[in-house]
Amino acid sequence: MKTIEEIKEFATKIRIETIRCIKQRGFGHIGGSMSIADVLAVLYGNIMKYDPKDPAWKERDYLVVSKGHAGPALFAALALKGFFPVEWLATLSKPGTRLPSHCDRLRTPGVDVSTGSLGQGLSIAAGIAQVFGMRKQENRVYAVLGDGECAEGQIWEAAQYASHYKLNRLVAFVDWNKRQVDGYLEDIMSVGDIAEKFEAFGWMAAVVDGGDVRAIQQAVLELQKKQADRPAVVVLDGIKGSGVPEFEQMEYNHHFALTPELADKVIADLEKQMSKGEI
Ligand SMILES: Cc1ncc(C[n+]2csc(CCOP(=O)(O)OP(=O)(O)O)c2C)c(N)n1
């Protein structure tokens, strides 16, 4: 197991590489990429089984980043773990790239499922978990959903399915960063109490600070211990743009043009924090 300090540092490196990657492109989904850096660090740092040299390894765990517009954060995590060279990150969304703006399993080593059309990822994750159960395989499936994405009816169809079929190898995360593309959920479309909703569908649920890697890790491990006959969800109570005050405080931080000056400044701040051990 990696230490919590190592996981925190990994999360910061995911943020830095994500910002560098989007800087090259000039614009991108920054807010929702930042807010999943911590959960990705926990999953790729200490939870998931995978082999960067063999992304299709049969015994690996699967990850479905259902909010597929946050691809850059996933690409940063995969590059840092050695699935492909970090230099690829500079090619985000450029002609001929292996890293399109949204997750594409046919193009990027380590991406298990193509996503981008919101609402579909939990159904896909449930299907994968169902197959593992039928084949008595030990692999686990993780899914990362957006809170705005939970406005899609298909999420709740999948929730009902996963509960009925006792999909105990499935853990979902909801990035409860309170915002979607058009603004705050409370103004556009409230999702209500996410944990309570999943519990009503027969899931186990926990709510943790989405920026606290220790809490995220503990929640996953504890839920998995108790997960005899049910799927589980971890609601990540967080901030869109998290880890970078300039992004957190922007009125619109979903998809925006990132100037090289701002990118360089926030990267330097993150590097300074990391070198002082303040992350
Ligand atoms: C089916 C579908 N409708 C609309 C969109 C356009 N879209 C892209 S991101 C987004 C907002 C998603 O909000 P949320 O799930 O909260 O993601 P986050 O704020 O964490 O980035 C929307 C509506 C889409 N990708 N798919």
Automatic annotation (TrEMBL):
<protein>
    <submittedName>
        <fullName>Transketolase, thiamine diphosphate binding domain protein</fullName>
    </submittedName>
</protein>
<dbReference type="InterPro" id="IPR005474">
    <property type="entry name" value="Transketolase_N"/>
</dbReference>
<dbReference type="InterPro" id="IPR029061">
    <property type="entry name" value="THDP-binding"/>
</dbReference>
<dbReference type="Pfam" id="PF00456">
    <property type="entry name" value="Transketolase_N"/>
</dbReference>
<feature type="domain" description="Transketolase N-terminal">
    <location>
        <begin position="9"/>
        <end position="259"/>
    </location>
</feature>
<comment type="similarity">
    <text>Belongs to the transketolase family.</text>
</comment>
<keyword id="KW-0786">Thiamine pyrophosphate</keyword>
